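Operator note (shift B, R.M.): manual run for Substrate-binding family protein requested after the automated queue skipped it. Running by hand, logging everything below so the morning shift can see what happened. Input copied straight from the record, untouched. If output looks odd, do not overwrite the archive copy; leave it for review.
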Amino acid sequence: MLGEPGKGGALADFAENVLAAGQEARAQAQTAPTVFVGRGADGMETGLAGSIHTEVVDTLGARNVAAAAGRDLLARISMEQLIQWDPDVILTQDPNFFQRLQTERVWKDYRAVRQGRYHLVPTVPFGWMDHPPCVNRLLGMLWGLHVFYPELWPQARYQQAVIRYFDLFYGYTLTPEELSSIDRLQS
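Run finished. Output pasted below as returned.
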């Protein structure tokens, strides 16, 4: 459409490779982690099964703990419900909720918090998971591969793929130090 078939082909190839890496990780992983995606300042809003807000989690084969609570929407849940689910991993794009996970006593007994498996999803230059719904979800998939399956996607492999993404999609040469800075801001 823009008269750049070579560039379009390179972007499409990259996207297909990320999707294939997700399928490969799903097939190779011993177990898929259970994941809660907390939205909002209190973290008590989440995407249900089929929600675009948890699409990255679903695509990578992780199990959205809220999937059984309904389909295709966002929903508010209670602390009691989250206690019952007790996810392996908690994700959020909200810095307020992330801060609460670190400081409020009520969160200390959750397995994900005890084990240090709670993360603020990167948002530079845009959200990597669900907001806005765009091509940045490929970054979210790369990040998720590293977070969910670190034995299959170690730091070096993850960094190399993200740096390649920035080069292809943004025409920006992201340095490993800049990427580390993005990740430090987020976790």
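Quick read of the result: The mean pLDDT is 92. The longest strand covers residues 34-38.
Leaving this for review. - R.M.
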